Amino acid sequence: MDFILEGLLGAVKLLLSGSGETYSAIFTTLKVSTLSIIASLVLGIPLGFILGYAEFPGRRLCRTLADTLLALPTVVVGLVVYAFLSRRGPLGELGLLFTVPGIVIGQTILGLPIVISLTAAAIEGLDQRLRLTLLTLGANSRQLALTSLREGMYAVLVAAVTAYGRIISEVGVSMMLGGNIKWYTRTITTAMALETGKGEFAMGLALGMVLLAIAFTVNVLLSILKMKAEP
Amino acid sequence: MLVLAALLAIQIVMLGASLSAGAPVLRMATTTSTDNTGLLDYLAPLFQKDTGIELQWVAAGTGRALALGRNCDVSILFVHAPEAEKKFINKGYGVNRREVMYNDFIVIGPKKDPARIKGLSVPAALKTVTHKKVIFVSRGDDSGTHNKELSLWKAAALPVPDKKKWYVQTGQGMLATVNVAAERSGYTLVDRGTYIKYESQAQGNPPLVILVEGDNSLMNQYSVIAINPARCKGVTYNYALGFIGWITSPKAQKHIADFRLQGKQLFIPNAEK
Fold first, then answer.
1. Which residue among A88, A144, A152, B114 is buried most deeply as judged by most CB within 10 Å?
2. Which helix (H) or strand (E) element contains residue B227?
3. Quick check: A1 pLDDT over 70?
4. What does pTM read for this prediction?
5. For position A40, what pLDDT does the model report?
């Protein structure tokens, strides 16, 4: 018990002392996770909407595919993207491996299926009477789509929170694509893996607490948004 | 639609990239020992001050570091597995190998030394470990240390105890592996630099102590290798040469000699003039 207590005390001290290393990892995490979630939402909401709203051949297959990708382990994403981004890979010219954008690509791929799948499910789950009512009121197809999207906003927010949770907590993608480079691509989770491996539990705990705090803050902010979005 | 989406994604990513432009960057793959001990944290700012080049490193076992070099994903290697390095160069992957520094490997184990290997030669110690089936923790990750360990089993005329219950392969970095050995009260092979770091973490009273040392076969040579620019277009060969020149210079060699933890020197510089 002393051991854990010591770790916690060390964690608090470390955070208060403002260690540059710790804050660099925190800042990197915020940067990559924000960019990743924006990219996931910008790409995922329209795709999810189409998947849930439109009728087209192969729709069921796409849906199953998106749902399967939900369970994709982060290391698999890391490995596949690594193969593409490596200098020997097809996108090697861009020099994205071991960079922040490299991690963002991997994390976007991780977040994307969640956003697509949950958005599609939300749109599918809308009350069918809404559509009929709108049609009887003489809405055109554009108005119909926009109203459906607005009605599904609450569920899309849930999708965003879920995707953010997956993005901010993953370690496989950040480690493989970022390389855990100090001051540069070291994120909270890769720093935690490293510090714990080195036996620096105080540092690991401190970072874990920050990660929890970030997740908590994001959830509070979004629950406020959700309350506003509710009719 | 998907193509459009992909293009958009790349745009966003590029935006992210442009936010983090700065000093010229030399990317290195290195072993966990140079990173774990803090040596590179200490050398990198000195290097940047002298040359203006920012050193960024990915710490991996030597095996993975060599793979990163083979894939042209880094411009320079700082590793410690001479045999593997020579193969690497013979295949044309690397150029300009220069020796930088050395220390030695040691066999550490629990203070009580249940298998009684203290003071034995390396082959005798390994034989005793095999005979008594005490926990032996291996890196198991194709790192320089792991390569050395495999060669020691070979030199002792023993098969590598790959599937034995008492032979624990962690697949992790050096300090992580030492910590596993400590938790399991086992023996392990470690480079002295990492051990001193471990000792300093344990406030000078570590559960694992040095039991076998001083054998010629335990020498641990570190070298730098530039990635062959003729093979890899993307590498920053000039910066790599800059680092090689710098780290083998008398000034940087003295920095290495001055690097101490708890008053103990971790690496002995030995670059040829």
1. A152
2. strand B219-227
3. no
4. 0.80
5. 96
